[in-house]
């Protein structure tokens, strides 16, 4: 068998059904109705494999990328240019593809007059998108493209943007700077973020579940309630951030720096903070298991705050 459809690909278009229990039940239906009869299941990414394993899929799970068709790879650098900076996005006009976010971003851009936006596709939200598109200085080009037409416009475009909230093969975030952005409640689950900076950003409730963060810097960010469960953090820095009530559950941390950052009421379980220096951080009321904080670097007064976790009692 081959797995290419998350429950969220369907339920995102019917919000009343788009909640964790419903999506988990659909995953169970997939397993009981189809995949339990498969000796092996092809998973397009490692993240798909991990999710199927967590959902109790017992068939052999094989990670085999869908790859890129050779015909879409240009043999030579592009020579044709557009008269305006051209952004293209390809996908069904639906909630989970979230082209609305891209249109809002273009409208808010100070260079909006110089941007041509192409939304290639069709779908149930077409009328809504066309109506909103009229508020842009240059209304987006919206139509269904043949494969040949699509390849031509992709090669001529200056930037390809994919805004999908749900994606089996999600687009990773590489070499990107977010500055003064409100990314609250955004979902970065099952993604790779590499060489990324968040500067003065609002990240309230943002989730990075099972994601890989490498060479990532958070600078003066309001990031309360973010969820890092199952994430892998390597060479990540939090500088003057508010990480109150953040969840570190089964989080892998390597070469992580925490500078003058609030960790108030954080949850730290099944994670290792060994050799991580939190001496400049506010750790009031954190909850943790003793193994997770073993080897953590602290300053003397913080030992009092952590004493209860390791079972130490002070006598007056």
Order of helices and strands: HHEHEEHEHEHEEEEEEEEEEHH
Radius of gyration: 23 Å
Count of individual beta strands: 15
Overall 3D geometry? globular
Strand content: 15-25%
Helix content: 10-25%
| pLDDT < 50 stretches | none
Distance between the termini: 66 Å
Provide the structure class.
alpha/beta
Largest sheet: 6 strands, parallel
Mean model confidence by pLDDT = 87
Q: What's the number of helices?
A: 8
Relevant terms:
globular; alpha/beta; 20% helix; 8 helices; 316 residues
Structure description:
The protein is an alpha/beta fold and 316 residues long. Helix content is 20%, strand content 22%. The protein has helices at residues 8-11, 20-33, 46-54, 99-108, 126-133, 147-156, 290-293, 302-306, and strands spanning 40-43, 60-63, 85-90, 115-120, 141-143, 159-160, 173-179, 192-199, 212-219, 232-239, 247-249, 252-254, 257-259, 267-269, 287-288. Strands 7, 8, 9, 10, 12 and 13 form a 6-stranded parallel sheet that branches. It is globular. The N and C termini lie far apart (66 Å).
């Amino acid at each position: 068998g081959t797995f290419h459809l998350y429950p969220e690909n369907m339920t995102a278009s019917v919000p009343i059904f788009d909640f964790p229990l419903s999506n988990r039940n659909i995953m169970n239906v997939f397993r009981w109705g189809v995949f339990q009869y498969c000796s092996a299941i092809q998973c397009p990414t490692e993240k798909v494999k991990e999710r199927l394993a967590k959902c109790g899929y017992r068939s052999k799970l094989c990670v085999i990328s869908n790859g890129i068709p050779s015909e879409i790879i240009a043999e030579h650098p592009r020579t044709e240019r557009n008269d305006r900076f051209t952004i293209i996005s390809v996908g069904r006009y639906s909630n989970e593809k979230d082209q609305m976010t891209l249109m809002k971003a273009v409208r808010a851009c100070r260079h909006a007059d110089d941007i041509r936006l192409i939304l290639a596709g069709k779908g149930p939200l077409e009328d809504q998108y066309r109506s909103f598109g009229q508020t842009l200085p240059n209304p987006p080009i919206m139509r269904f493209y043949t494969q040949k037409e699509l390849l031509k416009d992709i090669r001529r475009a200056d930037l390809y943007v994919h805004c999908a909230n749900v994606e089996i093969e999600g687009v990773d975030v590489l070499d990107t700077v977010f500055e003064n952005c409100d990314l609250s409640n955004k979902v970065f689950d099952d993604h790779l973020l590499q060489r990324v900076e968040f500067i003065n950003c609002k990240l309230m409730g943002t989730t990075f579940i099972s994601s890989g963060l490498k060479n990532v810097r958070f600078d003066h960010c309001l990031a309360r309630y973010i969820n890092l469960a199952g994430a892998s953090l390597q060479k990540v820095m939090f500088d003057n951030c508010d990480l109150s009530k953040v969840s570190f559950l089964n989080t892998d941390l390597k070469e992580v720096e925490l500078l003058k950052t609030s960790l108030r009421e954080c949850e730290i379980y099944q994670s290792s903070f060994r050799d991580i220096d939190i001496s400049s951080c506010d750790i009031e009321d954190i909850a943790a298991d003793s193994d997770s904080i073993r080897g953590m670097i602290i300053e003397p007064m913080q030992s009092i705050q952590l004493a209860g976790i390791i079972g130490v009692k002070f006598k007056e």
